[in-house]
TrEMBL record:
Pfam families per the UniProt record, alphabetical: TauE
Transmembrane segments: 49-70, 82-99, 105-122, 184-204, 216-237, 244-262
Annotated membrane topology: Multi-pass membrane protein
Name used for this protein in its record: Probable membrane transporter protein
Coiled coil region boundaries: none
Length: 263
């Protein structure tokens, strides 16, 4: 990674990265998937491949704050179903990064995100016609064959997208919404999921040269802005009803996908 570029940021570029870090904190405690906006900002200010390594520690800081906030609401059976498939997706994503250039990575992730958003909207409309998921916030029939296939499919996609572009949030958001999670169960489950997955990605990113001492120094400064974003998200989530919450998650996914497809 050409880390020398990190020391030639203009004031506006640093301000953009600081805002993106604040959005990371907000997304982790309020609207999961909104950090695709942060991904796009980092990729615009920094070299696209290098930006994924610099963003990763910032995301982990947000994950830690989210776990501290929603740790009581995680649904561990769902997590255990996802992890094996996610691990396979991370390996595939690592191999993909070895040969793929920035344009291929951006286009691939953007297409996947838009497809996931479309599928989720279609499924939510079906669910509205058949009756809303139960209010207890537990997922749907994950133990069925169809549920296991869905978990594996989303898990591989989530692992792949989180490895190549830190864009696994929208994919997992689509899975958790389709499984019938309510707000707190959604946020608690995704908090533990991404903390574990993002920490496991560190050696892969370091091995690819995407993380080094200079990038970590920039991260140490940017993490400061994650905290107010997380506090803002914690305040906002109690004021967002379930239907609006779902719409915001889907909208953030669509915006992130479109941003990745733009030149």
């Amino acid at each position: 990674m050409d880390t020398m570029t990190l020391w030639h940021l203009t004031g506006w570029e640093f301000a953009a990265l600081a805002f993106a870090a604040l959005v990371v904190g907000f997304s982790k405690t309020a609207v999961s998937g909104a950090n695709t906006v942060s991904l796009a900002i980092f990729a615009a200010v920094l070299p696209a491949r290098a930006s994924t390594g610099i963003l990763l520690p910032v995301l982990i800081a947000g994950d830690i704050l989210a776990v501290l906030t929603y740790r009581r609401h995680a649904h561990w059976p769902t997590l255990w179903r996802l992890f094996p498939a996610v691990g396979a997706g991370v390996v595939v994503g690592t191999v993909f990064l070895v040969w793929a250039d920035d344009a291929v990575v951006r286009t691939s992730i953007g297409v996947i995100l838009l497809l996931m958003a479309g599928v989720t909207v279609w499924r939510r409309r079906q669910a509205d016609g058949e009756g809303r998921p139960d209010a207890a916030g537990q997922p749907g029939a994950g133990g069925t064959r169809a549920g296991r296939v869905k978990a594996r499919s989303y898990g591989v996609l989530g692992g792949f997208t989180t490895m190549v572009a830190n864009a696994g949030g929208p994919v997992m958001s689509m899975y958790l919404l389709s499984a019938g999670f309510r707000k707190l169960g959604f946020l608690g489950t995704s908090a533990f999921f991404f903390l574990i997955v993002n920490v496991s990605k560190l050696p892969f990113s370091a091995g690819l040269g995407l993380i080094d001492g200079r990038s970590l120094l920039l991260d140490a400064v940017l993490v400061v802005f994650v905290v107010p974003g997380a506090l803002l998200g914690k305040w906002a989530v109690t004021r967002i009803d379930q239907r609006l919450f779902e719409r915001l998650v889907i909208a953030a996914t669509v915006v992130g996908g479109l941003q990745l497809l733009l030149p």
